[in-house]
Amino acid sequence: MDHLSVAIDHAKSLGADYADIRIQKTQKEVIFLMDLSLKNTSKNVTHGYGIRIFKNGAWGFAHSYIFTADAVKKTVEEAFKTAKFSAMINKDDPLRLAPERGYIDSYSTKVLIDPLKVSLKEKVDLMMEVNQTMLNYEKIKRATFFLECYNDDKYFASTLGSRIHSNITYVYPRITATAVNDSDSQSRSFDDGGYAAGWEHIKKMNLIEHADKIAEQAIMKLEADEPGEIRRRDLILDPGHLGLTMHESVGHPTELDRVLRWEADMAGVSFATPEKLGNYQYGSEIVNFVGDNTLPFGLATAGYDDDGVPGQKWYIIKDGILNEYGTTRDSQPFLNDGMSRGCCRATNYFDFPINRIPNLYLEPGKKPLSPQELIADTEDGIYIEGRGSFSIDQHRVNFQFGGDMFWEIKNGKKVRPLKNVLYKSSNPEFWNSCDAICDDRYWKDFGVTNCGKGQPMQASRMTHGASTARFKNIRVGGSK
C-alpha cells in the first residue's frame, strides 16, 4: 500500500495548506566494552511515520507505527485538528513557509560493507584486541571501547509533489585509556566522531596503532605538570578540538530559531541577532565558516532535509563577518523572503522536525602552512588536541573549554606535556584572535552524533571540520 499517497491525498481533502509525511525506519547498534568485559550490546529498530499539517499559519503533528490506510488517515486527522487549534492560539502572529518546489529523488550514503550486517563476533574481537593493546601498559588501569553503527531509511512525501527516499549510514568508534597512580588518574581518547560510511571505514582506521598512542599519552598526562594560574597565552588548536568549539560558539548561535528566541533549551538563545547580518565582525578576516549539507561523508548530508529542501552550501561567516544563518521553511520568512537553507531535521519518526546545525566547517588557510611551522612561529603557547569539557552562557557569548591532550610551547618548540588545562574567552574575542590557519593538507572533519536540542530532547548529528589554527593572547591556565 502507498501510505505516502494515502496521507497526502487525505490531507488535501481536509483542506491542509501544506502537509508532509516521513516514513522512517531507524536501526541502531551499540556495543560497549570495558577492559576485556562486554558490558553492553543492543540492536534496536524503530519504525513508524510522522505527519505534519500546516493550516492557517500553524503546525499540527501526529505520529503512529500502525501501517494501515485507516491508521494513516486517522493520524492525518489528528495532525489537522492540532494545526487548527494551534492557529487559534497563534492567530496574531501566524507562521509563513518559505517558497519551495517538489522533488522526486533519492540519496544514499556510499557504503561498501553494511556495518549492521557485520557479525557481533568480528566487532567484539576487534574491540578486545584494541582494549588489550591499551591494557598491556602497566599504568593503564581502565580501557574502554564504544562502538555505534546506525542506519536511517526514510521516505518523504509532501503536497508540493515531493517523493524522496534517503538511506543514511554511519559508524562511530571511540576508545579511551585511563592511567592511574597513587595520587591521580588521567584519560586520553581516540575520538574522530561519527563518519557517514560503512564498516570499511573502521577497517582502515588503524585502531591498534591509535590504542598504543593514547595509552602512552594517558601515562604522559598522569606524570605531567599543570599550567598554573590563568594568564594570556597563544593557543594552537587541532581540528578535533575545534569541532566542539565551533559547534558551541558558531553552530548553535547561528541557528535561526535561537536567534528568533523560539528555542532557549540547552544553553539558551543567541547574541548573533539579525541587525548584525552583514556588519558584525564575528572573527578575523581569515575566518570563514561554511554551512554545507552536501559535504561528502558529512553526518547532516542526506540529500534533503525534513522540509524536503535540498542540501546546500553557503557562508555563515564570510571574511570574518556574520553572513547568514541556518534556516528552515518556517523560520526563514522571519528574516527575509528568501528560500530555506535546508536545516530542518528530526531524529526519529515521532519527533517534530526543528532547526538544526548544518555540517559546519572552518575553511583552511589559503597560504601553505603546516602545524609544525605554526608551532615554530609561536613563542609562548599551549597546543590542545581533542575534545574535553565545555561551558557556555545563555547567549552563547562567554565560554570555557578543556581538551584531551595538552603541550606547552616555548620558543617555537613543544617542550612538555601538560594536564588539566582550560581556556576562557568570548564571542567575538576568540574568533577575532585567530591569526593563522593551516592549509587544506591538514583539514580534518569531526562528526557529532549527539547534539542535544529541544523538549522533548532530540539528539541530532552533523559534521564539523578545520585545519589546525592559532588564537592569540587567550586566557589559559589550570582547571583547579
What features would you describe in this structure?
The protein is of the alpha+beta class. It has 2 domains: 3-222, PmbA/TldD fold, CATH 3.30.2290.10; 231-478, no CATH class. Helix content is 20%, strand content 39%. The strands form 4 sheets. Strands 1, 2, 3, 4, 5, 6 and 7 form a 7-stranded mixed sheet that branches. Strands 11-10-9-14-21-20 form a 6-stranded mixed sheet, covered by helices on one side. Strands 8-15-16-18-22 form a 5-stranded mixed β-barrel. A hairpin with a 2-residue loop joins strand 2 and strand 3. Helix 1 (3-14) crosses helix 2. The longest helix is centred in the N-terminal third of the chain and has 21 residues, at 69-89. It is globular and about 70 Å long. The model has no long low-confidence stretch (mean pLDDT 97).
